[in-house]
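Entry 14. Structure prediction run on the chain below.
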Amino acid sequence: MKISSIKHDILIVVVIFMLIESVSIFSYQKLVLGSNEKDEINTQNIIDKTIVDLTGDEAETLELINEYRKKNGLTDLKPIKSLQDVSKLKAEDLVNYEYFSHTSPNLGTPFEMLKNNGIYYKVAGENLAGNTTPQRAVEAWINSESHRDNILDGRFQYTGVYVIDSEVYGKVFVQIFMGV
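Output returned:
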C-alpha cells in the first residue's frame, strides 16, 4: 500500500509526539506601560477580592511558581478572579482554535484581552506552555530565560493560572501576570 506524502508526514509527526515522553512547548510575553499611561490607576477597582477556586493542576502550578519566587526572595503571586477569567478565555481559545501564540485571531494580544475585560495594570505578562504535568510545565518555564524573567519579575503581584486538557500537548497552561 502506498502512503501519500502528506499522510506520511502526518504519521511521522504523530509517532514523534508519541515517542517523546514530555512535549514542552512554551511562550511568553510582557508589556510595561509607560509612566504617563495609567498613572492614576485605582487598584481597588482592579483587584477582584472574590476567592479564586483553582483546580488541582492550577493550584499545583501556582504553588510551584510561588516556591520558586520565595527561593529568589520574592513574595507570592496572589490569584485574582479577573486574571483567572482571562487565563481561562485564552486557554480555551488556544485549544478550541488549535493555535499556540500570544496573539489570538479571536481575542487579540494578552494586553488587549486585559483591556477588553476592564483590567488595568502597570505591567503585565503571559506565559504559555504545552506539557503533561504542572511540574514539567513550570520546569520548562524556569529553564527558559524569558519565562523565568516573568516568574521572577518583582513588579508582578497578581496572577491567573488556567490549565486545560489538550489533545496536542496533553495540557495547555496559561499564566497571566500583573502588577499595579
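The longest strand covers residues 170-179.
Filed with the rest of this week's runs.
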